[in-house]
Design goal:
This protein has 161 residues and is of the alpha/beta class. The protein contains four helices and six strands. The termini are far apart.
């Protein structure tokens, strides 16, 4: 059974070993996020999917963001935009899953002076605005829907909700 943190605080990242998506515990929502980056382009794609404990979709987001970003910064942006989306649809008990373990580590390291520092500060503020949140690292294969949404956002060059 997956451990849910009742309030956000730096902890060791949890690696969920499954190769497929699994629902959150009853009463929680799961936010899967991903970014799509191609070095030769001047934009990235971001994808986010929110599902309940029965696997039903509550919402999905696919957006394009102008700019040239490293894969790491793109994943930080995906986390921020996914959390903003979750806040917009009034999610209060959330489990976030990402295949970018370096993003989880960066949140815990308090990298305020780095390029991604302001993005991560936004993420921490968004964490504080929900009742409970956990963030976990998962395998890419278990994050397939968010990956497809990020690719869609990259290719559509617009916002899709």
């Amino acid at each position: 059974m997956m451990e849910i943190e009742m309030s956000w605080a730096p902890t060791q990242p949890c690696f969920v070993g499954s190769d497929v998506w699994s629902p959150p515990q009853p009463g929680y929502l799961k936010l899967n996020i991903d970014a799509s980056v191609f070095p030769s382009s001047n934009h990235i794609g971001i994808g986010a999917a929110i599902r309940d404990d029965k696997g039903s979709f509550l919402g999905a987001l696919a957006i394009s963001v102008e700019g040239s970003f490293s894969p790491f910064v793109a994943e930080c942006l995906a986390l921020r935009e996914g959390l903003r989306f979750a806040k917009e649809i009034e999610c209060v008990d959330i489990v976030v899953e990402t295949d970018a373990i370096n993003v989880i580590s960066a949140i815990e390291d308090n990298r305020e002076l780095s390029t991604e520092g302001p993005i991560l500060e936004d993420v921490k503020q968004l964490f504080a605005q929900v009742r409970s949140i956990g963030i976990h690292h998962i395998r890419r294969s278990a994050n397939h829907v968010a990956h497809l949404l990020a690719r869609f956002g990259f290719n559509s060059k617009c916002t899709n909700i």
